[in-house]
Specification:
- The structure is a single chain.
- The longest helix is centred in the last third of the chain and has 49 residues.
- Helices cover about 70% and strands about 0% of the residues.
- Among the domains are: about 55 residues; about 45 residues.
- By secondary structure, the chain is mainly α.
- It is flat and about 150 Å long.
- InterPro entries: FAM161 (IPR051655), FAM161A/B (IPR019579).
């Protein structure tokens, strides 16, 4: 019965759907919108030349590839060839004639005399001061074509300060070397006394002494073992000598 009711309901449902159904829209008689047709036509007119393959203008194409490397080096060679080479400027020798004036010559001669007197007094200076005085006198004893040189108070003070600093440095070096030698001797004396006292208070013997004792003890032990071996060997030989022969043992 349930199956029968189910089939009846299916048939009734199909009948209702068939009655309520509508036929589909017929698209054959429909026309496109006039605006869409106009746009399509305009597009075809504007882009119609792309479809045409028979063009009147055909550009010429150069299939060869230029040698850029060769062109670059050719340009460089041409630039070097066209470059203008200018000669270097050369200085001409000249002579300074200011020292030939009468007033300057007189001043230079007076200063040379003063420097000669000063050099006789500065012979007992240190190496640095001697070198500087020689350099100054050398400058003063140049030819008349050179400019005169004047020793100022600042130069003298600088020389004296250098001399004083050199003397202080030499004295400091001497004191340092003397102190180092004294300290070295003191350290050696302290080390010697410490070693002697440590040796006196140390109950252990030194390695050299123990080595000698060990050698002596080993030598004595070896000597005793040798004596024992010889004694045992003599006893063995004596027993073998006093042993009766085999036939004597059989007869007994």
């Amino acid at each position: 019965e349930a199956e029968l009711y189910r089939e009846i309901r299916i048939q009734m449902r199909a009948k209702d759907l068939l009655e309520s159904s509508v036929a589909p829209i017929d698209t054959t008689n429909c026309r496109r919108e006039p605006q869409a047709r106009t746009a399509t036509k305009t597009k075809q007119e504007r882009l119609g030349f792309l479809q045409d393959t028979s063009f009147s203008f055909k550009p010429r194409i150069n299939p060869t590839i230029p040698d850029f490397e060769g062109l670059y080096w050719a340009f460089q060679r041409e630039a070097v060839r066209r470059r203008e080479i200018k000669e270097a400027t050369r200085n001409k020798p000249f002579k300074l004639r200011t020292s030939n004036l009468r007033g300057r010559q007189r001043q230079a001669n007076d200063k040379i005399k003063v420097r000669r007197l000063n050099t006789s007094d500065s012979q007992q200076l240190s190496k640095v001061s001697v070198q500087k005085s020689h350099s100054l006198t050398g400058l003063s004893s140049l030819s008349s074509n050179t400019l005169p040189v004047h020793i100022t108070d600042a130069t003298r003070k600088r020389e004296s300060a250098i001399r004083y600093s050199q003397d202080n440095k030499n004295e400091g070096d001497k004191e340092g070397t003397y102190w180092l030698e004294k300290q070295k001797k003191k350290c050696q004396a302290i080390q010697k006394s410490v070693n002697s006292r440590a040796k006196a208070l140390d109950p252990h013997k030194s390695l050299e002494e123990t080595h000698k004792e060990k050698l002596k003890q080993n030598w004595q032990n070896m000597r005793e073992r040798t004596k024992e071996y010889r004694k045992e060997l003599e006893e063995m030989q004596l027993r073998v000598k006093n042993r009766p022969y085999l036939f004597e043992q059989v007869t007994k």
